[in-house]
Request: fold
Amino acid sequence: MTFSSDPAELIPHRDTMLLVDKVLEVVPGERAVVAKTVSIEERWYQRPGVREAAPEHHAYPHAALLESFNQACAVLVMTTWRSFSTGVLEAGVPMLGTYNNVRFGRPVLPGETMVHHIRIEQEHNESMVLTGESFVGEDRVLTVGHGLVVRRPAQVLGSGRVPEGQH
Amino acid sequence: MISDETARTVFGEVEILSAGDQADGQPPQATARVVVGADEPAFDGHYRGFAILPGVCLIELAHRTAMAALPPAPAAGRARLAAVEAARFQDPVFPGEAVTVELKWERTEDGWRCRTVLSTERGPSARVRLAYEWGESA
Reply:
């Protein structure tokens, strides 16, 4: 089975909140490498006053960096669930449950490309624990000790209701 | 350093409601409120047809509250977010909701950590623990 390098074929995120560009490598059930280039055109930099401010104010927001990493995890999780799900079992959608031990390195700046390296640590029927690091060149900009994602039925996105316990 | 010109994912303003210094054994603490409007960029494409605030945005709100109510500096230099020690997401935040942040500081070997609870009127949405370090290169 071959997989697309386009993350949008695997995850539901779109528009402002699609924060991964390209799947470089993926081994279902094991690991993935996913890239994202930070752009000064992203919405965070369009808030009045930000674009003109000194470069130290242009550090890629921690939340966006983490969310990009999350989406790289979602790519691996969706690839894995689609590979191993039967025709009867809907692959479902991964939703973030918890983080542990996330450390930030130096700030990431517009124009830089982040490469997320994600690995599956534990796999259960309805959840997965992942770990990984993100690099800009040789610089490690993010380390994630553990992230837990939980499988939710895909219908949850259209029903207007989210099950208790997760985003 | 965080100021109004610093890039962030949640455009809404964090309003500090109270900030207390260390006194009589009580840790420094703060409470804040922010309204997450339907026009927030973070709802755009997350997801189409079903808007829900990304959990990482709650981490950001905790961080901005912390930076607006820093405890006494343990070393020279500026405060820097070093780690998200833990985050647990319990309940979603939808467009238009107000998020309350309750934050308590405690000393660590390298600086301070804060424990935060972020809530909507329905109850806790997330619990986030952040670690800060102070240094010249922050």
Observations:
- Residues 159-166 of chain A have pLDDT under 50 and may be disordered.
